[in-house]
């Protein structure tokens, strides 16, 4: 035991205090605090930094007797565990019983022999010490149990998220393959419609019929746009290293390009802000990443169409530690973190796990196909990154994208 145990003596007679100190003189590793004033004794017992391990207490004191002192100690949660030994001249069995009822652990009558005082105090101190050790072990074990329960819960959540991610990936891949084939066949059907309509328009003078054929061409062009979206989703979900060109990209340039394209279309009440502070590059496909940022930006603009607001692009270098990576389902390492934040309408909680599904849209037919985010998701996955979304109705939405970055040393080695 390293810590010195503290013995508090409360007795209104100095001679008794001196005798007790002498009796206890050869107990190892202890410190005595003594007072003649019971109120001072109470103060000392309650002092959290100097709390005694045992109290030797006189019963007959003029202002506050030992029983009252004892009940004060026992009704306070911080001091109730301190063992109290009564030291008194009263020898009748009744007062002894009363003292023990008040919560004292032992009773020594005056005149006492030093050996008896020493033996009783020592055995109570040993008991207290043992109890303290036991309590701290129980606390440690309980904390460890809590921690392992929390770890288990965290692991369960992370596993759930990872399984969901794998499922989503598989679903997207299957849809990607199917839509690519469908888009290809559909394009073959559109081609002759387009050609024959154009030929018919050239050989016809009637303005009414020409206008009708023009409408057919508009419809064909809409269908072509849709097919192009479907195809790019198919490509983003079935991309392999062999069929896509990848270069070192400074994502800042891509964000700048999107801003230039977007700005002229923005209504007055929507502003764009840029906080681009990344230094690293990524290995990727510029066209695809352009599409990612454009799709997210268009969604953000649409969400702010009525209310107006601010669209902010953040770009930062970020190191993902093992622990953070585990919680996010990412490998530990260096990443570029692209954050796209809007102050628009927000996304309803119950729609959050649907927004990445292909063809999921809350927009009217002519405003959205519901393919934007599924394309984004596929492209980010093919760049070995990930995308996360946070949203609050009426406040706005944040998309966080993490893509592995190339360290300076690796860039220089090329
Ligand atoms: N920034 C955002 N704020 C609010 N809702 C959003 C935001 N981004 C996406 N959403 C919601 O997610 C849905 C799916 O988005 P997604 O981009 O996949 O399709 P879309 O925008 O509806 O159509 P498309 O992009 O194909 O034109 C949207 O319809 C919208 O409800
Ligand atoms: Mg969209």
Give an overview of the whole structure.
This protein is of the alpha/beta class and about 425 residues long. The protein folds into three domains: about 5-110, Response regulator (Rossmann fold, 3-Layer(aba) Sandwich); about 165-240; about 240-410, 2-Layer Sandwich (Heat Shock Protein 90). Helices cover about 50% and strands about 20% of the residues. It is built from eleven helices and twelve strands. Strand 3 (about 55-60), helix 3 (about 65-75) and strand 4 form a beta-alpha-beta unit. Helix 2 (about 40-45) packs parallel to helix 3 (about 65-75), helix 6 (about 205-240) packs parallel to helix 10 and helix 7 crosses helix 8 (about 285-305). The longest helix is centred in the middle third of the chain and has 89 residues, at about 115-200. Bound molecules: adenosine-5'-triphosphate and magnesium ion (MG). Magnesium ion (MG) binds next to helix 8.
What proportion strand? 15-25%
Present as ligands are: adenosine-5'-triphosphate, magnesium ion
Radius of gyration: 40 Å
Low-confidence stretches: none
**Class from helix and strand fractions:** alpha/beta
User: How many structurally independent domains?
Assistant: 3
Main sheet summary: 7 strands, mixed
Helix fraction by DSSP (H/I, runs of at least 4)? 40-55%
Number of helices: 11
- Helix and strand succession? EHEHEHEHEHHEHEEHEHEHEEH
Strand segment count: 12
Shape by Cα distribution: rod-shaped
Rounded average pLDDT: 87
Q: Can you tell me the CATH architecture of the largest domain?
A: 2-Layer Sandwich
CATH level-four homologous superfamily name of the largest domain: Histidine kinase-like ATPase, C-terminal domain
């Amino acid at each position: 035991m390293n810590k010195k145990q503290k013995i508090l003596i409360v007795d209104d007679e100095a001679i008794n205090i001196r005798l007790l100190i002498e009796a206890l003189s050869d107990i190892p590793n202890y410190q005595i605090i003594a007072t003649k004033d019971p109120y001072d004794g109470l103060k000392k017992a309650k002092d959290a930094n100097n709390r005694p391990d045992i109290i030797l207490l006189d019963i007959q004191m003029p202002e506050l007797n030992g029983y009252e002192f004892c009940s004060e100690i026992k009704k306070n949660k911080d001091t109730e565990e301190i063992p109290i030994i009564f030291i008194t001249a009263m020898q009748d069995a009744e007062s002894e019983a009363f003292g023990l009822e008040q919560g004292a652990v032992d009773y020594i009558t005056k005149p006492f022999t030093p050996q008896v005082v020493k033996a009783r105090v020592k055995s109570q101190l040993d008991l207290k010490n043992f109890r303290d050790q036991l309590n701290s072990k129980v606390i440690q074990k309980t904390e460890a149990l809590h921690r392992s329960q929390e770890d288990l819960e965290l692991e369960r959540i992370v596993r759930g998220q990872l399984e969901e991610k794998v499922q989503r990936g598989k679903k997207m891949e299957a849809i990607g393959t199917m839509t690519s084939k469908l888009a290809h066949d559909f394009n073959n059907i559109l081609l002759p419609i387009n050609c024959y309509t154009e030929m018919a328009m050239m050989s016809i003078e009637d303005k009414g019929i020409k206008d009708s054929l023009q409408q057919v061409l508009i419809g064909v062009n809409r269908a072509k746009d849709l097919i192009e979206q479907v195809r790019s989703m198919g490509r983003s979900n079935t991309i392999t290293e062999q069929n896509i060109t990848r270069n070192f990209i400074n994502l800042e340039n891509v964000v700048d390009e999107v801003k230039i394209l977007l700005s002229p279309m923005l209504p007055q009440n929507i502003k764009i802000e840029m906080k681009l502070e990344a230094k690293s590059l990524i290995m990727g496909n510029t066209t695809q990443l352009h599409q990612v940022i454009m799709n997210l930006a268009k969604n953000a603009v649409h969400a702010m169409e009525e209310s107006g607001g601010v669209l902010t692009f953040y770009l930062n270098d970020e190191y993902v530690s093992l622990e953070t990576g585990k919680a996010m389902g990412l490998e530990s390492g260096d990443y570029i973190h692209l954050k796209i934040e809007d102050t628009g309408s927000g996304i309803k909680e119950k729609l959050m796990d649907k927004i990445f599904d292909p063809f999921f849209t809350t927009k009217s037919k002519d405003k959205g196909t519901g393919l934007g985010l599924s394309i984004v998701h596929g492209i980010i996955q093919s760049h070995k990154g990930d995308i996360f979304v946070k949203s609050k109705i009426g406040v706005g939405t944040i998309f966080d994208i993490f893509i592995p970055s190339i360290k300076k040393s690796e860039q220089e080695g090329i």
